[in-house]
Each structure stands twice: as C-alpha cells, then as structure tokens.
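Async update (no meeting this week)

Hi team, since we skipped the sync, here's where things stand on the single-chain job. The sequence we agreed to prioritize is pasted below, unchanged from the tracker. I ran it this morning and attached the output directly underneath so nobody has to dig for it. Comments welcome in thread, and please keep replies under the output.
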Amino acid sequence: MTVLRPKATPPTPPAPARPASGGSSSLTRTQRRLGRDWRLAAVFIGPTLVLVAGLILVPIVSSIFTSATERHGAETVFVGLDNYTALVDDALFHKGVLNSFVFTAYAEIFKVTFGLIAALMLHHMRRGRAIIAGVILLPWVIPTVVTGFTWRSLFDPIFGSVNVLLTDSGIGPFLADVGLVNSWPAEWLSDPALAMPAVILVNVWKGIPFFTVTFLAGLKAIDGNLHEAAMVDGASPWQRFVHITLPGLRPVMIVTVLLSSIWTFNNFDLIWLMTQGGPGDATAPYVMVAYSKAIQQLQLGAGAAVTLVMLPIIAVLVVILVRMMRRSDLPGASDLGRRRLTPAQRKALPWVIVAASVLVLVWASPQIVWKAALVLGVFVVLAAAVGRVVSVLATRGNRLAARLVGGAGSGVALVGLLAFVLAPLYWMTITAFKSDDQIVARTDDLWPTPWSTEQFTNLFTGRAFGTWYVNTILVSVASTVIAVVCAALAGYALARLKFRGSESFTVTILLTYVMPGALLFIPLYELMSGIGLNDSLWSLVLAYPTFTLPFATWLLVGYFKSIPADLEEAALVDGCTRFGAFRRIVLPLAKPGLLAVALFTLTNAWNEFLFAFVFITKDDYKTLPVGMQSMIFGDVVPQGQLAAASLLISIPVVLMYGFGQRFLTEGLTAGAVKG
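Output:
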C-alpha cells in the first residue's frame, strides 16, 4: 500500500528506488521539474486553457493588431498609430470617457451606501431574513433587458407612472422648487440634465443586491466576540460600527467596489436599452463609441483603438483587485499595506481619496454633484440621527426605548427599501395584464380592470418570440455545461494538484475573470466573421465562456480548497486514483459550489445582451434580450407586449434563484469571498 506523506513533511534522504511508490524519492526528473501531478494537471486544465487562450488572450492580442488598421472600401490597410492619435481630437470619445466616469462614480457611491445599510438591517434581523434577502435580490436576478424596458416605461412622460405618482404626492413640484429638476412634469430620459441621473438611478437599483449579498457575507464572517467585548467595555453602537464592523468589512468592501466599478465602467446594455446614448450624446459611454465606430461604421480598427486606449485604466483596477482577492491566500499579506504606511498616512489616505474624487466629480459634472450630495446627505443624516438616538438611549440605560427607536427606524428603512425594489417589478406585472386600450387611456394605472391576457396572445401571434425563447434555452444550457465541466476540472487542478505554473494560471484566471466584455466584442466579432459563425447560435455558445468560465473556475478553486484534503488522501491510500477521488469524493461534497456556478453561468448566459446584439442579426437566431429590443420600431414602443415578454423571461430566472438561494449564499461564502 502506498503511503502519501503530508505536504509539510521535509523530504527524506535519498533511498534506493522502489518500483511502485508515491513518495518524493520516486519522482522522475520531469516530475521534479514540472511538478508531481503535471500529467494529470495537463488533462484537467487543458480544456480551460484552450478556451481562455483561444477566446480571450488571442482575441485581445488580435485586437491590438486590428487597432493599427483602417478599412478603405473593400481593403484593410495598415495605418500604425493613426487611430489612436485621431482620438486626441475626437470630441465624441472625450464625452464617452467622461460619461463612463460620471456614471461609474455616482453609481458606486450610492450602491455602497444603500448596500451597506441593507446588509446591516438584514444582519440584525431575527426573523424573515431569508425572505427579505430573496426579495432584495430580485433586481440583480432579472435580466438587464427587463430592467431597461421596465424603467423606460416608468419614466415615459405619457404612459409612465413616475410623474403621476410624484405629482399626486406633491414630491414632483417640490423637486422642481428646490432645483433638483428644471421643470415639472419632468422629461426624465429626453432632458440632457436628467437622462444621466436617471440611468444612474436604474444602475443603483440593479446593483444594490450585489453589494447587499457580499456585505452580508462579510458581516457573517466578523467574529461576534469582538462586538460582545466592546459592549462589555461600554462601546456605543456607533463606536462598534466604526471600530469593528467597518474594519472587518474593509477587504470585502474593496473587492466588491473594484469589481463593480469595472463592470459599471464598461456598461453598455442598460444605457443602450434606455437611451441609446441620448439625448444627443448625454449618456453615451465609451463602449458605445467603440460600438458605433466598429459595428455601425465598420471601422474595426478605430473601434478597437477606443477600447484599448482605456485598457491602462482598467488594468490598474484589475491589478488592485487581483492583489486584494489573492491577499487572503498569502501568510501575513493582510499586514503588508500597514507596514508600508505610517499610522498618520493610513488615517489620512481615505480622506485624500474622498477629497480627490469629489474634486474630479465637481469638475466633471457640476450640474449633478450638488444634487447627488443633497440626496445622499438626507439619507445618511437620517440614518446617523437614528443611530445616535439609539446610542444615547442605550448609554443612559433605557434599553427598551433604544430597541423601540431602533426597530421603528429599521422598519421604516426596510419598507422604503422594499418599495424601491418592488415598485418597478409590480409595474411590469400589471402592465403585462392590461389591454392596449387601458395602457393608452391611462385608466386604472395601478390595477388592471379587467385583467387581460391580450398582450401574451399578441406576443406569440406573428412574432418569433417562441423561437427566441428556444434559442435562449439552447445557448444558455450549452454554455453552462461547458463552463461547469471545464471549471470543475480546472478548479480542482488549481486547488489540489502540484504542478509548475499553477500560480501563473491562477493569476491568468483572475485577470480574465474581471476582463470586461467591452474589450472582447470587437475581436470576437472579427473572429466569428472570419470562421463564418456570425448569425449562428454557435457564435454565442463559443463566446459566452469568455465571461462565465473564468468566474466559475475562480469560485470553484475557493470551494475546493474549503473541502478537507484528508478525505482524498484516505481514498488514495485505499487505492483510489486521483480522478476517482475527484469523482467520488470531491464532486459530491462540492454540490453547493457546483450549483452556485451553474446558477450564475446559466443566468448570465440567459441575460447576456452585448455579444448577442453584435453577433446576431437574423430573427431566427436571436435570443430573448436582443429579440425584445428589436420589437421597438423607431418611436413605436409596444409597452404591453414588452411587459409580457419581460415577465416571461424573468420567471425562469426567479424560480431558479428561489430554488438555489441557499446554495448561492453557501457557494459565495465558501468560494468567491473566501477565494
């Protein structure tokens, strides 16, 4: 029987070779050079390596060469750096970069604030936490195309309900009186001064759940004994929040903000679906500028230059994010930053960052900054005031009053949060069951009378909606199977097997994990055109692993590391092969992580818009998000049919998340957050 020595045991002195031993003395020269498990690792990592190299690394390199070319008629000629130098005087590009920065900065500020407040409320709830968390997760779960069309309908000055409700409540005229809107009723998406705040609001609505879930996982990881010790020492709730909660959340908060910033900075689908960059170019991000040049004007080189010139900014965020995500794996790494900064520097650094950010925002968006500060300040002051009252009452020994005030404040905040989360979804649902006459006549805005299935009947009559649904199912399932199988093999190899290059491959996975689709859609479009797969479902099946596979691999690496290695070693001692131990021991124990990965990859593929929008033009091959977008003809927007389609596309995703919410939380906690 072969006995495997523990990893930490020092190598034994040289001994005569034994025929069938697994000890270090029997390693061949190749194994000592490439690692003990290099052969098995090559089999496990091979599929992922091929997909990552072929669909991410090679297209990015290809994009660099494409950016040095220009199309002249039917010919493509080499122009060197001309596409880059042309951007210096390109006003549209300058506006796009500025819009991306403004959109990202304000969205992140509000998402962090409200996500933290929501996480704190859920963390202190004793009953109903899982139900409330599931409800709050809905905006993140539903497809972006549903988000865009639902809010676009709500903001519509003729058929929407935002202006009506704000007018009836008196809030709308008040907003005009204090200068938050120029006039009332407001033209939310057609007024250049309001269009950007409107799309920021929608991004915040969709992004709060992500921050809430990650912050909640971080709060659960904070040692409760620290709070108990602080309470014994007489620390107030505010002091415990500042000195225990915030420092404990700092690593999770930094990773979450950086990851969300990369996604938000490269956002395309939400803005395109709501405003298409308008009015004028008031909301057009730099990704939309790249799309316009590459796809609409057929200048792939100019479009590639737009995306690549932003690569240094994204690279800085990615490098910081990778270091933060890997920090927990390095002994003593959490103290590296502290050793390099003095206490005074550590204390001043956050304020320097805040001051610099405020100054940049004042310069970039003077018409928005004071409005955002006023709105944010009202919520922060109210939350701080309630916390201060609770703290004072608790200090004076009046704990019953403190609990009542704290409970009332949390209840009001929770009701407001749920109303903000559910109102658009409620509007989508009731609109789907209105007749066209009810929608046009604006009768019974908040309750259909009578309820009608007219929109669902019209949706399947004379349209390819059924075909779009089948296409979406096929592409989502196929890409999910590829991602889960490849990620399980690669994740296990990176977590368990010993081979040279594992660290480099882990870093590569991390880099591709956060690589935005904005850098890939042009070279992938060129690649699919070159091999004749445009207007084919295969183009989407091949392209979707670019954003599902790296994430799935990274999450499973963390999850496999959380499974005790002793179980596999016992199986190996009993004569099981490494692959047999992986199949019989590890995979059954990793079911929560595998289900979380399958859930993420399936819903991401189900919701994806940019690649499908660029690669597919024929109705027969469109997926649901792109098909729904094609239902709009100029200014003719079928509100009822879009609402019915939104409901039908959302129900499967909501049911999947409802079934897998427990596995999702466990997978995040043991995988992404830990890894």
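Quick observations from my side:
The chain is about 75% helix and 0% strand.
The longest strand covers residues 69-72.
Reply here if anything looks off.
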